[in-house]
Amino acid sequence: MGKDKALLDFGGTPLILHIASLAEPLTGAPVIVGPPDRYANLNLRVIPDDEPGIGPLGGIATALRDSREPWNLILGCDLPLLTSEWLAYLIDRALVSAADAIVPQSAAGAEPLCAMYRKSCEASIAKAIARGVRKVTGWIAALKVERIEPHEWKAFDASGLLFRNLNSLKDIEEIAVALERKYGKVALS
Q1: Contact 166/9 with Cβ under 8 angstroms?
Q2: Residue ranges covered by each domain of the chain
Q3: Model-wide pTM > 0.70
Q4: Could you give the CA distance from residue 152 to residue 49 in angstroms, rounded to a whole number?
Q5: The CATH number of 5-183 is which of 3.40.50.720, 3.90.550.10, 2.60.120.10, 1.25.40.10?
Q6: Smallest Cα–Cα separation from 28: which of 85, 69, 57?
Q7: Are 9 and 187 in contact (CB under 8 A)?
Q8: Residue 96 Cα to chain centre, angstroms
Q9: Count of alpha carbons within 13 Å of 45, Cβ hemisphere only?
Q10: Residues ≥6 apart with Cβ < 8 Å to 104
Q11: How far, in Å, CA of 76 to CA of 66, rounded?
């Protein structure tokens, strides 16, 4: 994309702060996993990735290692169409589950970067990384996962775009159109 997705302008604020503002009333102060110097001016706690360069799996491992909570909400920084209502449902669902993880499913498959993970998964993710696993879906295949199917989460987003993330300039343009339909004019750049 040529720029840090987390710092994309979302209606006058960095996208990562938009995501954090959705989570904070439900979880308390969010923690960012990433380069502390890059996010220092956001007034959020930032911890460096324990194993930079291995992608989201390393970020989840770092978050679980750092956490003191039994359940952890893990969110990608590039999901502008999430809603607080959806996140509240996801958290509530986890709190009554016997699973290791609560992972929504979309037409694209598992959505592991908008999911809940137990702190007790810390050892299994470390072992997976040590074995060379780099895909989050490769790790969660070994967990007891409760899946949230589209017919369940579409109550929070009938358009089916809840998990649409930003990977290209074209994605930004398409999501800007969806945001305009949903909220009126919202700048995303």
Answers
A1: no
A2: 5-183
A3: yes
A4: 33
A5: 3.90.550.10
A6: 69
A7: yes
A8: 20
A9: 9
A10: 90, 110, 111, 114, 115, 147, 148, 153, 162, 163
A11: 17
Residue type, 27: T
Neighbours of 123 (CB within 10 A): 9
Structure-derived torsion over alpha carbons of residues 171, 166, 168, 39, reported in degrees to the nearest 10: 140
pLDDT for 116-168, tens place per residue? 999 999 999 999 999 999 999 999 999 999 999 999 999 999 888 899 888 88
Beta strand residue intervals within 61-100, DSSP E: 71-75
Q: Token digits for 64?
A: 């679980």
The residue assigned the tokens 């800007």 is 176
CA–CA gap between residue 2 and residue 168 (Å, rounded): 9
b/e for 33-52, b at 16 or more Cβ within 10 A?
Answer: bbeeeebeebeeebeebbee
